[in-house]
Sequence to fold (1061 residues):
Amino acid sequence: MEYDVIVVGGGHAGCEAANAPAKMGLKVLLITSSLANIADMPCNPSIGGTAKGIVVREIDALGGLMGRIADISHLQIKMLNSGKGPAVKSLRAQGDKVIYPKNMVKALNKLKNLTIVQGMVEDLIVEDKTIKGVITAEGNVYKCKTLVLTTGTYLKSKILVGDKFKFEGPHGEESSKHLSDKLRELGFEIQRLKTGTPQRLDPDTVDYSVLEKEEGDKTPWTFSFDLEPQYDVDKQVPCYIVYTNKETHKIIMDNLDRSAMYGGYAEGIGPRYCPSIEDKVVRFKDKERHQLFLEPESAYYPDLYLQGFSTSMPIDVQDKMVHSLKGLEHVKILKYAYAIEYDAINPLQMYPSEESKIIKNLYTAGQINGTSGYEEAAGQGLIAGINAGLRCQGKDPLILKRNESYIGVLLDDLTTKGTKEPYRLLTSRAEYRLILRHDNADLRLRKHGYEVGTIDEEQYARLNKKIADINQLVNELKEIRITNKNTNKYIGELTKGESLYDLLKRPEIKIDYLKEYITNSYTDEIFNIVEIQVKYEGYINKTNKEVERMLKLEEKEIPSDINYDDIKNLASEARQKLKQVMPLTIAQASRISGVNPADISVLTVYLKKEYNK
Amino acid sequence: MNENICAISTALGVGAISIIRATGPDVFNIVNKICDIDITKKASHTISYAHILDKEEVVDEVLIMKMDAPKTFTMEDVIEINSHGGISTTNKILELLLLNGCRLAEPGEFTKRAYLNGRIDLLEAEGINDLIVAETEKSRKLAMNRVEGNLSKLIKKHRKELLSLQAELEVIFDYPEEIEEEITYDKVLEGLTSIKEELKDLVNSYNNSQIIKEGIDVALVGKPNVGKSSILNHLLNENKAIVTNIAGTTRDIVEGSISLNGIKINLIDTAGIRETDDVVERIGVDKSKDIINKANLVIFILDNNTDMTPEEKELLDSLNNVKKIIFVNKNDLDSKIDLSDIKEEVVYGNTTTPEGLDNLKNKIVEMFNLNELDSNNYNYLTNARELSLVKKAVESIEESINNTKNELPFEIIADDIQMTYNLLGEVIGETYKEELLDEIFSKFCVGK
Fold:
């Protein structure tokens, strides 16, 4: 028997990669090394955060699971960056590490076309540079039309604590010993990456009286566009802030040679944006203290996650470090911090559809592509799943553009620039972020979900209702005029009649001040999105103009048979990069680092001459 | 750009030697066909003695310089043939190259290749063009500064400042809970204002750099017989005229140029128009208006020996808003002129003594600050493309200053800064890459 799509790995990428094609009506098999660890959160308990929260909304807009599962599985949720602008706002939830996987498994089990089995995939069946199936360590053979690899950190994982290490996964499980060798044999470039996770502490041994509390928002939120908030805002679990001090820093500096990273026991490259505490102390010597967070992991077991304190120091040093923190002097350490090294592929060997350039019908998603983070993994899993499904249906892939989504930014960055460190999304990576907002993810993406079949009629109708409401409210704002006769205390005196629309453009006028004039009723969601659209119209238009400029270059396709060696005047670095990336368009080519504007001129001239493009 | 191109690189005319330059993938083979040595066997960056042959006949005795790619101006193979000067010999060699596989280079094509091959950036490419046409010492220095990338350096400095400011904003978006001392509107305002001022100075310096590059256009205005021609001749003869009778320029009539403190002074005689005119008595106010408006300076010449005519008074009135020097000529003769209506300072002089025009020259130097006009200070914007981009950058930064004053969300201000950053990037042909993230991670301790 042959599956349409086989997904290897049951993490955040794997769950989405299995869900999407199953929803599209395809026959899907999910193979996980441990049924107990599906949708596991081995690191941070939070889902969302800056930029990442918008990705979760995008996943929901495209019919993915992460948002709706997070909505029914969290201990606390809040909106970050509320006061800093419309597009940098982002939701972050503290997920419950027990409930989240449970709810995810429940959702997957509801999918008729999905089968889930346990097994460690160690070999691939490849014929004619095309994937045909997988073989597990137990010797089981599964055949498929398309394959999505979402192996996370499990390719040759190595756990490091100080100068000690073990070849195992985050929970001491088996890791895949041979799959990355197989990939290397097939022509994949394998790189070694590293990430780390901090200590878990016993909440009953913390002195909360000296710590600052961080509560969830009093406004209820959901990631999903389809769900109403299902939690009590007053029953959220708080987090706490802890600070390092001079004593902590001294302990670290005195023991630096015993850290796996500084002592030279590790070879993998770690992320700059998620530095270990020894990194922070060494690189920012002048800083007197660093801020840490104590975050609850679950309502069902007593663990606190010490956010910001990841380290690869040996345990005796970790004991001293943790106990030097104010409020944690007598804390019981339940699990020590560790670093984990794993194999990843070079994402430059992948198309923006996430299909491999080396093996046909083979897709990769998540940490295997060199990213970090649950949300980045889930976003990629979703797109890989959709594209594997579309391939089975004989359709063109769904390639999200940089002006459409953070997921598009992520995939374009990965496949254009590659990555040397675990890649994390940041709002500053998105040049069109003003239009990639939390509030409009469904407006940007739901139609794609509907077209590929991951969004159903009911969800699509909800989108259309939203669009209609937005248009109606905008019309009302344009039609209703305010004069001195009917002005209110917020608007104040007017020299001439003005429409609500123009009044809303004033920086000091909020849409709340104008609600009394509006005849139809709208949800807060509609008011909020229209307020942003009107207030920042000039900026949004400016962004759209830049998008148009970029899209023109996106239209200039580069033929796949181009031979960069034939183009005499390319700088050698540019030639090498272009050969490696094989950009699909001039726009993508222009984003490759090491390809200068001069090279783009040369390339454009060449295309004009040789292909008349 | 697979073609081989060639051109005569020295000014065509009678000189001691001429240089014919060729570049492209096959230039060595092409040159081999027209000379009596095997140039492909010569080492790179060496000069060889050879004869240029047209079939059997020796055309000239030459030195051939061979330079292998990529260490050449165009980063392609380059040949330079030093031949004996003379139009016919030089042209003959060029013709032989054309017959054997080169095509004639378009103006600026060597520089264009250097740019396209990544040898120089856009600014340097423009600088080299300026260097080629530089006529005076200061203009040459200005161009040299650009070749060395002084403007690039300055633009890069401002971009770095903008980047640093933007990083301070971006870090609070991406790490909202980790930055203990967030940036304030006041700090943004301070940073933006100082960059704006420097960019404005840059725009202002454009005018000065225009003076260094193009010189000062000076129109001599006055009724016939007031002495314009003799002033002109006096200036040109005494000051080692560097150019005479530039024909075909867009300027009306440049009689000649002199060098004053190293700056080119282009002398324009408005009289030329009218002296052929039959209505001699009437000063052609209308006709000279255009010239007067275009000039950087008008020298209005009066005759010390006769009183002002109504036409002269009319003309003087029309010069109200024009940068001018009122020059009273013939001060060696009796003063019969009544200057009581003129409120401005006047300069006296004559053309009969060697020092007669020194006051006039000193006045020009003073007015344009030529003593202090040093190309070291004006090594900046020198063409309209750069000027318009920097002007746009100033507008964009002014907008962000307004938005900062109005305390618009930081996100919007960060977008404004990005815009300015990109505009400045266009000046030097650089685009946005990973700089922002590098800046954030080098500057802030963030990351949970």
Q: What stands out?
A: Chain A touches chain B through 51 residues (CB under 8 Å). DSSP finds 18 helices and 22 strands in chain A. The CA atoms of residues 33 and 119 of chain A lie 5 Å apart. The first strand of chain A starts at residue 2 and ends at 8.
